[in-house]
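TA notes, week 10

Several of you asked for a full example with nothing omitted. So below is the full record: structure tokens for the whole chain, then the designed sequence directly under it. When grading your own attempts, check the secondary structure regions first.
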């Protein structure tokens, strides 16, 4: 989702159901729609992917971590390693 704000514009974020909505405040986390992951806006992995050019069309933004998790996204292993390890440990022990 493009989020370049301008006069009278805003930001497009995803809600807990994964639906886009307009916000006057920018998102605090970025994510990748196809990979279903979220991370910091300054994530080195995301910045490298964006520099290669193929990442932007699947980029999404979230107001906070709770919303990203509720929308079904997982933490990034690169910029949120502790949260990713916790997610992975709980995912592997959860019943199907």
């Amino acid at each position: 989702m493009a989020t370049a704000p301008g006069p009278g514009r805003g930001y497009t974020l995803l809600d807990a159901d994964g639906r886009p909505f307009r916000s006057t405040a920018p998102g605090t986390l970025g994510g990748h729609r196809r990979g279903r992951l979220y991370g910091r806006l300054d994530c080195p992995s995301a910045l490298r992917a964006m520099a290669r050019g193929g990442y932007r069309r699947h980029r999404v933004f979230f107001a906070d971590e709770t919303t990203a998790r509720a929308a079904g996204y997982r933490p990034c292993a690169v910029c949120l390693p502790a949260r990713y390890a916790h997610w992975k440990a709980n995912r592997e022990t959860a019943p199907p």
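DSSP finds three helices and six strands in the chain. Use that as a sanity check on your answer.
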